[in-house]
């Protein structure tokens, strides 16, 4: 019960209504113009310039990007097996809690 999860809880992402979220006319930053929040190279270049100027991305686009990456991660396997030849090295950078050998 230490890691008990209420399976009926919904993700905040499921509750967001991005379609009706208003982007104020005063917002002059980068925009994701389609309903799927498709990230393009042009958008990323604009976003990098916007961030370099210490400006903030509108929450509608930030939420759209986060929801897209959430969907992507959920579609991927949680464990990926790879084979590393004995003559090579594989370095893991980061935090991991379980090691499968």
Describe the structure.
This protein has helices at 12-15, 41-52, 59-75. The protein is mainly α and 101 residues long. The chain starts with 11 loop residues before the first helix and ends in a 26-residue tail after the last helix.
Descriptive terms for the model:
single chain, 101 residues, mainly alpha, 3 helices, extended
Shape: extended
Number of strands: 0
Distance between the termini: 27 Å
Structural class: mainly alpha
Share of residues in strands:
under 5%
Number of helices: 3
Average pLDDT level: 86
Question: What is the makeup of the main sheet?
Answer: none
Q: Mind telling me the C-alpha Rg?
A: 19 Å
Portion of residues in helices? 25-40%
Q: Helix and strand succession?
A: HHH
Spans of at least 5 consecutive residues with low confidence: none
In short:
This protein is 33% helix and 0% strand. The protein has 101 residues and is mostly helical.
What order do the helices and strands come in, and which of them pair?
Elements: H1 12-15, H2 41-52, H3 59-75
């Amino acid at each position: 019960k230490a890691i008990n999860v209420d399976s009926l809880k919904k993700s905040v992402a499921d509750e967001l209504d991005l379609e009706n979220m208003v982007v104020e006319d005063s917002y002059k930053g980068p925009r994701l113009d389609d309903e799927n929040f498709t990230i393009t190279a042009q958008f990323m270049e604009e976003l990098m310039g916007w961030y370099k100027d210490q400006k903030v991305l509108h929450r509608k686009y930030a939420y759209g990007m986060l929801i897209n990456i959430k969907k992507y991660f959920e579609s991927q396997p949680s464990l990926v097996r790879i084979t590393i030849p004995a003559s090579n090295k594989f370095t893991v950078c980061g935090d991991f809690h379980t090691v499968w050998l």
